[in-house]
Amino acid sequence: MTKYLVGKVGDIPPGGKKIVDAGSRSVGVYNVQGRYYALRNLCPHQGAALCTGVTTAFVTSSGPGDFAYECEGEIVRCPWHQWEFDVKTGQMVVDPATRTIAYEVSVEKYDVSVDDEEYIYVHIR
């Protein structure tokens, strides 16, 4: 497994994202309420840059005229055809068998560093 430096924790505030090159792959790294998640920046439908799409919530409804937002900031919508994917798992919302790749993310701090920042890494097999 190879790890790629994404940046400092301060580079991606809560609710934010950063798209980076990790080897030959483009990866979107998301900060969802202080936890970091990484997705391949590729929609499995027709290959759009998925992570350039809107990051939003999941909308639920119990009936006509009633709706609620859940999982704020955990859904990314493909910019081409609006397919929605869970940032935490890479699974498509309406068909979990369809997915983009989700990568492991770690936050690390070096004791010998002169600054006090933690660094975000994406791990790719």
From TrEMBL:
- Organism source for this protein? Paenibacillus antri
The name on file for this protein is Rieske (2Fe-2S) protein
Q: Which is a Pfam family this sequence falls into?
A: Rieske
At the top level, the lineage of the source is Bacteria
Q: Iron as a keyword?
A: yes
Give all residue intervals belonging to the Rieske domain: 4-114
What one GO molecular function would you report for this record? 2 iron, 2 sulfur cluster binding
Alphabetized UniProt keyword annotations:
2Fe-2S, Iron, Iron-sulfur, Metal-binding
| The keyword Transmembrane appears for this protein | no
Q: Locate the coiled-coil region(s) and give their ranges.
A: none
